[in-house]
Amino acid sequence: MSPTPVRFHDPRATRADFTSSILVRCPRCERIAHLERRPCTPPSADRGTHPHARLVCRSCGLCRNGSRPFRFSRHPGAASYPTLWLRTDTRHGELWAYNLQHLDLIRRFVAADLRERAPWYDIGQKMTLVARLPAWMKSAKNRDEVLRAVDRLRATVIAPG
Ligand SMILES: [Zn+2]
Fold first, then answer.
1. Would the pLDDT of 123 be above 70?
2. pLDDT tens digit string along 14-41?
3. How far, in Å, is the centroid of ligand 1 from the Cα of 29?
4. 141-157 burial, b if ≥16 CB within 10 A, otherwise e?
5. Which of 9, 26, 53, 86 is the right S-S partner for 97, CB 3.0 to 4.6 Å?
6. CA of 73 to the centre of ligand 1 (A)
7. Ligand 1 centre from 59 Cα, in Å?
C-alpha cells in the first residue's frame, strides 16, 4: 500500500500577491520589521512627494516613510536598504521569501509529490512565483534539505530570539 501522493496546485500567485507586506531586518534594532504599502502619516499637502510605503518595527517603534515603494536587499551590506529577513543559504543555492505566506507556498510546493502547473492560457504572460522557483528547489533529492531550511526560517519569525 502506498500513501496517497500529496498534490500541489499552483495558486497562480505572483510577486504582487506577496509584496504588500515584506519581512525585513529593522535598520535600528535588527529585529523583524515590516515593509508595507501604506505611509506612517497621511500625505501632507506641502510636500511634493507623497509617502507610498513605510517600514514599521514593532520592537523599537520605528516607522519610516518612503516616497516610493521601499526597496530592500537580499544580502546584508549590499546596499543601504533594509535586508530581507527570510533568507538563508543552502548547499544548492539561496532560499528566500518575502513573508510567511510566501514561505508556506514554497514549503507546500517542495513537499508535494505531484505538482500541477498553472496552464499558460490561464496566467497569460505572467510567471507565477512557483514557476520561478529554481530547479534545485524542485529536485526530489534536495527536498529534505530545502524543507529543513524552510522550517529554520519560519522558526525565526514564530519564535524570534
Ligand atoms: Zn526596530
1. no
2. 877 888 899 999 989 999 999 988 878 7
3. 4
4. ebeebbeebbeebbeee
5. 86
6. 17
7. 5
